[in-house]
Amino acid sequence: MSYLTASGKGALDTVMSSLSFADKACRLCITASTVDFDNELIRWCELEGFDTTFIPYNYDDRHYIHELNALKQELRVTESYAVIGFGDAAAFCLEHFLKVTNTSKLCALIAYYPSRIPDPECSYASSMRVLVHLADQTVQVLSASHGTDHKRHIVKRRVGAGQGTGDRLDFAYTAYSYPGISPGFAESDLDNYDPVATEIAWTRTLSVLQSGFQKHLDLEKTWEGIEQVTSGVDGFEEKYFSSDMSTAMTNYTTEETPTVTYIPTLKGASGIQALHQFYKTSFLQGRPPSMRLRLLSRTIGADRVVDELYVAFKHTQEMPWILPGLEPTDRQVEIVLVSIVTLRGGKLYSEHIYWDQASVLVQVGLIDRNSVPEQAKGITALPIIGREAAKKILLHDKEENIERKTASMAAQVDGSDIH
């Protein structure tokens, strides 16, 4: 469901207070070997409340170290700073801050596609968090010194895939690989820019920054603040189907282009004006009186909230967002819907909504499971599940209870509350 809400007065204040870093400085340095670095990441960091500055890496090591050390100036006893480096600047910082004596007040170091990395078995000071994003690249690996010559050896290694779908590498410090993605993927002004890899890396980066600065934000509280219902409005469904358009649209970021996409039907919009029109003409008009929602689970990340929702309704009116172009069938529908919301600085940035459209089409009579194509040999019915799938999740997979509660759930869809 699109979280188009009617936030009451004070809701935005609640959101921003849960994101505020004003109680102590969170100084963040972004550094790269260019003076015209892409501003997008800088803007993202500023939106999250970090006191952000940029330092170019000019290969004058002595001057560069002086500038890095200046970041600590005027910080109070309890305050700290973090560094995000790119390319050669990231490589220098990874090596420089490997020495414990250089890590005073440094709480986090994040490196994007460094050209050189320390030995994967090296460990950093326990007082700081380290995160390395490695593209599909060849890197120089600085091995630890051996013997009496105290010389370090440099070898070239190709970055391979990591473990699982997340591609985490088996390093002593936290590192991820991004197979098939070239260096420069996180800079929108470069040809190698990859928005998907950028989003994944940013979520990981933000999580490390929050941990390093000990800012364990209550993102659920932020999300609930956005969902806050106008005083006097009752019903869980009103959080998702508010008619107060002017207030609801203020929950979307104006620093980026907010986007909402209903994946199974490709309905939705991008941009404030287009979203306003979509909600007004397609979404809010597509809510039958019988619509009932129930939160089944919620997963919280550094910048995302994933809601699993039970949705039940009787198809008594046109619903362009889920059944576009279809006249009312007067049939009951029950599905499980997943909403993935991304926030930027306490504002809605994107939402992706998924559900089983085949199940919906079966329930409204557009697909007959027993109508099997001739070429589908060996099966007697199409592998599509109707309402039973949603009921199974709602009842915690207790199959023995499904039949017993079917009548009760049907009554809920007809107008009673879901408890």
From TrEMBL:
The keyword Glycoprotein does not apply. The keyword RNA-binding does not apply. Gene3D superfamilies: 3.10.450.50. SUPFAM superfamilies: NTF2-like. Keywords: Hydrolase. GO terms for biological process: polyketide metabolic process. InterPro entries: Cyclase_SnoaL-like, NTF2-like_dom_sf. It comes from the Eukaryota. GO terms for molecular function: hydrolase activity. This is Dienelactone hydrolase. It comes from Aspergillus arachidicola.
